[in-house]
Amino acid sequence: MKLAFTTLGCPEWNLDTIISKAVEFDYDGVDFRGYLGEMEIYKLPEFSSDIETTKRKFNEADLEIPCFSSSIRLFTTSNKELESFKEELRQYGRLCQEFNTPFIRVFGGGIGEISRAEAIDFVKNNLAELLPIAEQYGVTLILETHDSWTKCEYVENILRLTDSKHVQVLWDIHHPYRTEGEQPEKTWELLGDRIKYTHWKDSYPDETAPRGYQLCLMGEGDIPLKRILHLLKQNGYEGYYTLEWEKVWCPEIEEPEVAIPQYIQFMKQLKEE
């Protein structure tokens, strides 16, 4: 079982702290989603002018960067926005080559009042622009089960648009179950052969919370985590199990010094059950 956490959960940790904590808590990798307040990390010295130092630190710690989590959305009606996504993809493609990272996380995006059929047409055209860049850099775009593309059927609609191996699935095991009532077995049945990466979090229903649920430490909510882990193991899943602790968006949840080690302990115990 390969375990990682995203930097979304530790917004105030610098690079040395991220690496030292990952080693201390026995993680295998770190997934970058922002760093010290900057979401477009390729603009920072650590991932541009000082990148060799960053590479050396990760190598010495024997840590991987299994994924760079971008802000790229496959659905947009704006040519200007699409051009910005293409440039973002080039920048993350460069980082993937530097760190031997196979995946770049992308979103489907919110479609608003546009019909799903029309949204699919936009996604098809946008993919035709983005995929050649992914192929050029030898990276795979992993589409997260999120926003207007949380249901497995909607994700499959996008996968059907291309036969490229450079589009696969990131199963955020929380969102389909919590927001759509989708059972894990259904998600796997439809998408399992394309699921290459997973995000993990737990929550419980809370009508007073803005989202209608409250994020919590692993095992303190009612997401069927054990069922999902066993489902993945039984079907030979070999990818990462990555904690997405949304501290940046939800400052009220526990500090990373609590949540990040708790995840490791919980997952290793769950694996033995």
Automatic annotation (TrEMBL):
SUPFAM superfamilies: Xylose isomerase-like. Residues 20-269 form the Xylose isomerase-like TIM barrel domain. It comes from the Bacteria. Gene3D superfamilies: Divalent-metal-dependent TIM barrel enzymes (3.20.20.150). Keywords: Isomerase. GO terms for molecular function: isomerase activity. InterPro entries: IolE/XylAMocC-like (IPR050312), Xyl_isomerase-like_sf (IPR036237), Xyl_isomerase-like_TIM-brl (IPR013022). This is Xylose isomerase. It comes from Lederbergia galactosidilytica. The lineage of its organism: Bacteria, Bacillati, Bacillota, Bacilli, Bacillales.
